[in-house]
Write a structure and sequence with these properties.
single chain, about 200 residues, alpha+beta, four-stranded antiparallel beta sheet, three-stranded antiparallel beta sheet, 4 helices, elongated
């Protein structure tokens, strides 16, 4: 990549756009962020935060602090390992989060990361690749007519060089059409946010 194709400011803008697109499409964000979340108690021992907790610094119900020890609280979060089915905070010993709107405050580091030996984990490699491909797709000369042809190349069923003709396969209905690019969609699909518990 040369500065004439894209300077640092343009690349930073494209990376930001690609990151936001991936976050929106998958329902997660993939780097650690400090945040305070207000969650709804449901009268059950478990609540599902919208993103995996990496580190929980504070948990309070209606202003009352809860202990964060493993004996009192089970935290299912990041770095995410095999078998991850969604983030969860579960109170132990028969305690429950009282049913109310926004009565649970959870503070800490949040994000969907994978194990790399560090406490916070890393952005999944497939997500990093999808982000790079989205950026490259929007760079000249990749953002011109030749780029469109290259992105549709996977649809070619038949091509004749002498007659200069080709036949494209139609767009087939996929379970989830995310970006329209099968390579990027295949990278993102395993990271789609699951439906919350009890969702119909």
């Amino acid at each position: 990549m040369t500065a004439t194709v894209a300077g640092d400011a343009r690349l930073a803008q494209l990376l930001d756009e690609a990151t936001r697109a991936i976050d929106r499409l998958t329902g997660w964000f993939f780097e650690p962020r400090q945040a305070t979340l207000r969650l709804d108690g449901r009268g059950t021992p478990s609540i599902e935060p919208p993103v995996p907790p990496i580190r929980l610094d504070r948990l309070a119900i209606e202003g009352s602090e809860l202990p964060l020890t493993p004996e009192s609280l089970v935290v299912v979060g990041a770095p995410v390992g095999p078998g991850f089915d969604g983030p969860r905070l579960t109170l132990r010993y028969g305690r429950a989060f009282p049913r109310s709107h926004g009565n649970v405050i959870a503070e800490g580091r949040w994000g969907f990361t994978e194990e790399d030996g560090s406490p916070e984990g890393r952005t999944p490699l497939a997500i990093r690749r999808a982000c790079m491909l989205l950026v490259l797709r929007n760079l000249p000369p990749l953002a011109d007519d030749a780029s469109l042809e290259a992105r549709n190349r996977w649809r070619i069923l038949e091509e004749r060089t002498r007659d200069q003709s080709y036949r494209l396969d139609g767009f087939h209905q996929q379970p989830r059409l995310l970006t329209g690019d099968p390579e990027i969609d295949a990278l993102l699909e395993p990271y789609m946010k699951p439906s919350p518990f009890g969702a119909a």
